[in-house]
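step=encode ok
step=design start
structure_in=
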């Protein structure tokens, strides 16, 4: 791919400004126009011809459509935008309705619980096998300590899952 010079980028920027592009959209659209121009340059067009093709596609009607869509889709105040996470902005009008947003928010909790549960079960299994091989059981041995740690991990995972479900039930009933 061929890279654009600063003068060529400035020309694309001026084109966006001339077509009354929203200040928040300028940097994003400039990146897209620059990629398009670089693709045309790579195909063998000179910059002037590439600019003509781009301006045909990115005319004032297209920019107006994007500006209106942006204002409609991101109908949040400046303060809300500053405090919102990327997930809040992305899922604002769509996936919250059918639960994808809630599922995505629960990933860290589910991953942590699964990891602790898996380690706990592994420790319990190793302690159990060690006890079978020795033929005796002692809670004050390394295998007994592994058993206690494993039971604690499993109990923590099951308990936190139960409490999380109770919180969700309480939130949905109120």
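sequence_out=
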């Amino acid at each position: 791919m061929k890279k654009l010079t600063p003068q060529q980028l400035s020309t694309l920027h001026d084109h966006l400004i001339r077509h009354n592009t929203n200040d928040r959209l300028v940097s994003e659209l400039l990146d897209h126009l620059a990629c398009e121009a670089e693709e045309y340059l790579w195909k063998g067009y000179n910059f002037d011809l590439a600019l003509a093709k781009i301006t045909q596609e990115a005319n004032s009607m297209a920019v107006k459509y994007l500006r209106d869509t942006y204002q409609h889709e991101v109908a949040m105040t400046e303060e809300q935008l500053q405090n919102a996470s990327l997930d809040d902005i992305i899922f604002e009008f769509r996936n919250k309705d059918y639960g994808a947003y809630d599922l995505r928010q629960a990933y860290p909790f589910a991953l942590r619980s699964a990891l602790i549960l898996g380690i706990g079960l592994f420790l319990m299994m190793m302690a159990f096998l060690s006890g079978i091989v020795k033929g005796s059981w002692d809670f004050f041995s390394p295998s007994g300590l592994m058993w206690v740690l494993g039971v604690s991990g499993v109990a923590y995972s099951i308990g936190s899952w139960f409490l999380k479900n109770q919180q969700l039930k309480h939130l949905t009933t109120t």
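step=design ok
step=annotate ok -> Residues 6-73 form one domain.
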